[in-house]
Give the backbone structure.
Amino acid sequence: MSTIQFVNVSKQYPGASAPAVDNITLQVPEGSIAVLLGPSGCGKTTLLKMVNRLHQPTSGQIFLDGVDIQSIPVNQLRRNIGYVIQQVGLFPHLTIAKNIAVVPELLGWDRQRIRNRVDELLDLVHLPLDFRNRYPAQLSGGQQQRVGLARALAADPKVMLMDEPFGAIDAITRESLQDQLLELQRRLRKTILFVTHDVEEALKLADEIIVLDKGRLVQKDTPCNLLANPASDFVRQLLNTDDRIRQLSLVRVEMVMKPLHPAIQLSPLPQVPVGTDLKRVLSLMLSPAADTVLVTHEGKPIGCITFEELRKVGCLSN
Amino acid sequence: MVEALIQTLTQSYLYYLNRQSEFWGAVVDHLILAGIAIGIAVLVCVPLGIWTARSRFASLTLMNLVNGLRVIPSLAVLFLIIPYLGLTSTSAIVALTILAMPPVLINTDAAFRTLEPAILEAARGMGMSAFQRMIRVEFPLAVPVILTGIRISAVDVIASATLAAFVGSGGLGIYITRGFALYDYSILFVGAIPVALITLAVEGLLSLLQKTLQPLKI
């Protein structure tokens, strides 16, 4: 069990008129990605930084695996939590390998074990092994954040805190980093608390989205349910729930495709691989002579989608 | 004009040849005086600079004090100290140390003040203790800027260590005072030229050291 649990957590900054975090109780289940979403100043970053005790709650308790984090020595707690921040914060005077090795070194791993782990992590985040001896300034922003991710994963923590990790990265690279995070998550099953103000990012990554406003928890649900049943006008506006195109982008082809009919002529039809979202399918359908799109798996057609399926999508029916 | 200069320089060289052991003794004295002053300045001002970067109180008081001291010419400082410490090398070292301190303090303060907050937060968030952060992150990142301060100090101090001759503490200044007293440029050059060369050499060496320690930037 590696849950993060907040119980009646509040944070009042001295001199501020309203609390930054106001009596929040919630639980992030083991192995899931919970995204804290809200406008700036809603308290999402404060809430996140209370988990590794960079901020101290004014009242309330936070538990990791049922253990009150106040009872764990602070540096020991932090070494067991992966931490990724927007500005990356790599150490410019250390090589990439040394940057990744920081926490294992703090934990006293032997040299060979650290070496192997660094290679393993570079591979995991799709960076070439000869990056070991480069310095952060020699890498692009996207590559630096891959190193940031590798560094946070170095000691194989069960819990990861990610504070707008892709916020400062260009749109194309951001998307590929998001895809990669999801791919990593399928293999590693970390418990991830992720802060963003980017609604698209939240919808794409989250198992559950926690919407915050003025320090209060407004709604907590899966992306689909949140879009279907926004609890208030604030959530409706924040998520722009009337945007059906966006809802399509949350559903993947294999979830709605129908079996192939033997009579269908395959050759001229557009094809998409498994894992593609329906927004992409819709845009293919808008081109001439493509009212059916084929779904392929490893190059072989396994199903198809027509406009009918798009219309029937679960989120839309509500 | 050029001929006269060449003649003077030749005389300087002959003067040096006749007094080689005195000359090298003076070089060593000069370097020791400057070295002690810079050493004390570094030992005192690097910790003080770390303190001033963190404390508003320390910053207000110490920085103003040091900036105030900076405007008093070293020669004046030297003469002000003599009544208390006499005509000794201690007087010379105190005057030179006061000269050496401001650049080291100011640069150390700036180095620690301008560390990127994101880097410090990452270090904290990964579970480094305050001591580990200082040794592994903050100090290594501050060193190039501190070295710039030491370089500026070193240049000032090596040039000004000629003043030590006024209080009978030796160094290459003896040739300058002697040349001045005898109104003989060739003797003055025996002090002035080596001082200039040593200053350039130290400046070059410290620049080189600084470059090798600079975190890679592209």
About this structure: The mean pLDDT of chain B is 91.
